[in-house]
Amino acid sequence: MSKGVIIALIVIVAAVVLIAAFIAKSRNANGGRNLRKRFGPEYERTVARYDGDTGAAERELSARVERHGQLRTRPLEPAERQQYENRWAAAQERFVESPRESVAEADRLLAEVAAGRGFPGGNDYDEQVSALSVHHPHHVNGYRRIHRAALAAAGGAADSSSATEELRESLVEARALFDELIHDRGHRPGATTTGARDTHEQRERSGGTARSHLPGALTRNHAKGS
User: Fold this and answer.
1) For residue range 119-158, what is the model confidence (pLDDT) as tens digits?
2) How far is 110 from 177, CA to CA, in rounded Å?
3) Which DSSP string do the residues of 52-67 spell out, in sequence order?
4) How far apart are CA 73 and CA 115, in angstroms?
5) Does residue 162 contact residue 224 with C-beta atoms inside 8 Å?
């Protein structure tokens, strides 16, 4: 084999390697953009949990999509939806007298509603949250927050105004996920939450069920004084 042929082969191999590396880099970049678009705030939260290591965060998010991306949920029957709404309203109304019990009940109710929709059961909290993060990435953190608050309250967290305020805020934040679950408003990759928020506000203005679930017990001033 002549020297010229050998040089030509080396050039060809080098070119193939460079092209393969470019394609791999492009795929990774596109994959990262797709994950960021799909997960929104959950993407940023996961990156922060890995101290800014986007590669590790994206591997975890990709694994979640692989496990739960094809999950098929079922809509709730009207009677089921009404029953859940009534139970959530009762939990919120109970907040003034028993904030800990109120939050504990809301935490249990979220796990039950998610399981009823077809997500993993609440007995496997981590897997349930993982699946919810794929389909409800904008509001899943509300579930995490109320679950932590319920565990802290059960563990005898200090009964102070700041502790009560944290319970109140966790209950308010968790309500957004509850609304999405009972009204079958899963997140579409790349979509904003404006539509869901507008729908919620419209129901409040029209005097629908959403309005009845926002008692004065959960206003900031009242909670701080409780």
Assistant:
1) 998 789 999 999 999 999 999 999 999 999 999 988 876 5
2) 8
3) T-HHHHHHHHHHHHHH
4) 9
5) no
Which amino acid makes up residue 208? G
Domain ranges of the chain: 3-68, 78-225
Angle between helices 194-205 and 161-182 (to 10 degrees): 100
Return the amino acid letter for 176.
Answer: A
CA distances in angstroms from 72 to 68, 135, 144, listed in the order given: 9, 10, 22
Whether the CB-CB separation of 102 and 109 falls below 8 Å is answered with: no
Handedness of CA 112, 144, 100, 169 (dihedral sign): negative
Per-residue confidence band for 184, with pLDDT thresholds at 50, 70 and 90: confident
Distances (CA, A) of 172 to 169, 190, 218, 220: 5, 25, 8, 10
Interior angle at CA 45, CA 210 and CA 121, nearest 5: 60
| Helix, strand, coil % in the chain, rounded to nearest 5 | 75, 0, 25
Residue holding tokens 């509300």? 142
Nearest partner of 171 among 99, 226, 224, 118, judged by Cα: 99
What DSSP designation does 119 have?
S
DSSP state of 28: H
